[in-house]
Amino acid sequence: MTPFDLVEPSSLSEAFGLLDPDDPAVRPLAGGTALMLLMKSGFFRPKRLVSLRAAGERLERIAVGPDGAARIGAMARLAALERSAEMRRRFPVIAETLRTLSNVRVRNVATLGGHLAHADPHSDLPPVLIALDARLVLAGARGERTVPVEGFTTGLYETACKGDELIVEAAIPPLGRKRAAYLKCTTRSADDWPALGVAVAWEDSGGTVASPRVVLGAATERPTRLEAAEATIAGRALDDGAAARAGEAAADEAPVVGDSRGSVAYKKHLVKVYVVRALRAARDRGGATA
């Protein structure tokens, strides 16, 4: 690796002053699990890394309010999320997703903000957070703004975060009567990249599906809602026939990309199968516990 400066500001305001939106060689540093690989390969040669490790308690917190809403700091480690008793109780789908995200060594270092900012299309949490209608708080020297996780990833390794902004926290509304699940197809090989991941969530309205979300990841260039699949189950009871129709609709509309983990035709088949499985899993598991 080439030499670079490593600075560790003691506050967010100090961190904003150390960023340079006009210089791509100046980057914030969270857990560094992905960034260090890019640096070791020579793909990224930083001039200055701004570590957020000491930039304030807000970035580290994992807080679940009395109403069940969660606010998770960008520097919260994925392992801390996985082990949080309140997150397991209020958002079991997140805890379950984290158990198979990469490996325990990575989860002990990687952070929520870094996971989202890297915008790798194979990432597990973005589809889940989109399904849960989560939002991100972004902050910079000019103030804060809130954006939905849906649409935050704008392309391959690209996000809506400006060069002088940082992800501060994620806000997740209460799970309430929602049912949610996430499933992925992976060989659990050394690199652990899934062929696809599917997150689903909906409000249980007297036995019928309300406000459904079906989100596809890994098989597409960015997390993508499958609105035709959502329409097939909205306002209906989720029996096996409805789940099968949703799977067919999802396979038809999904803009999948072929790669070393499968051709377009193969991934289309996976979409059909895994959407059905995810819907059934959410139906049978339920949501938060009181």
Quick synopsis:
This protein has 290 residues and is α+β, with helices and mostly antiparallel strands.
In helices, the fraction of residues equals 25-40%
Strand content: 25-35%
Per CATH, the architecture of the largest domain is: 2-Layer Sandwich
> Which ranges are low-confidence, i.e. pLDDT below 50, for 5 or more consecutive residues?
none
Instruction: Give the class from helix and strand content and strand pairing.
Output: alpha+beta
Structural domains: how many: 3
**Termini distance?**
50 Å
Shape: globular
CATH topology of the largest domain: Uridine Diphospho-n-acetylenolpyruvylglucosamine Reductase, domain 3
| Main sheet: strands, sense, barrel | 5 strands, antiparallel
Gyration radius (Cα, Å) is: 19 Å
Averaged pLDDT, please?
A: 94
Number of helices: 11
Order of helices and strands: EHEHEEEHHHHHHEEEEEEEEEHHH
Q: How many β strands by DSSP? A: 14
CATH hierarchy class name of the largest domain: Alpha Beta
| Spatial order of the strands forming the largest sheet | 4-5-10-6-7
Describe the protein:
The structure is a single chain. The chain has 290 residues and is an alpha+beta fold. The protein has three domains: 5-51, Uridine Diphospho-n-acetylenolpyruvylglucosamine Reductase, domain 2 (2-Layer Sandwich); 60-172, Uridine Diphospho-n-acetylenolpyruvylglucosamine Reductase, domain 3 (2-Layer Sandwich); 178-284, Enolase-like, domain 1. Helices cover 33% and strands 25% of the residues. The chain is built from eleven helices and 14 strands. Strands 4-5-10-6-7 form a five-stranded antiparallel beta sheet. A hairpin with a 2-residue loop joins β6 (135-140) and β7. It is globular and about 60 Å long. The N and C termini lie far apart (50 Å). 44% of the residues are buried. The model has no long low-confidence stretch (mean pLDDT 94).
